[in-house]
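To: structure desk
From: M.T.
Subject: fold request, one chain
Message: Could you run this one when you get a chance? Sequence is below, nothing fancy, just the single chain.
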Amino acid sequence: MKTILEALYRGQINPDGVIVPSQPEYCSISRQVAAQTEQWRERLGEEVFRELEEYFDLCDSADSMHVEAAFLHGLRLGAHLLIEVMGNKEALVPDATLGMPL
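Reply: Done. C-alpha cells follow.
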C-alpha cells in the first residue's frame, strides 16, 4: 500500500477535484447559480457577458489562491499542534514517585 506522501508526490491525490460540500442546500444553490447565469447571459448579450465571465474568472483565481493559502496554513497549524502535543510527553506520563494521578 502506498503512503499518503507517495501518492501526493505522484500526483494521485487531488482534493480540489473530489471535494463536494456536504451541506444539503449546496445542490439547490448550484442550480440557482446556473439558472441565474443563463438569465444574465440573455440580458447582457454574448459580448458583454463574456467580459463579465472574464471578471468572474479573475475573482475565481483570487479565491482559489486564498483557499490554497488557507489550506496550507491549516495544515501547518495542525502539524505544529501535533508536534507540540507529541513533544510534551512528560506531562502525559505520571511520575509514580510523585504520586501524580493520570
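Reply (cont.): Residues 17 and 48 are 30 Å apart (CA to CA). Let me know if you need anything else for the meeting.
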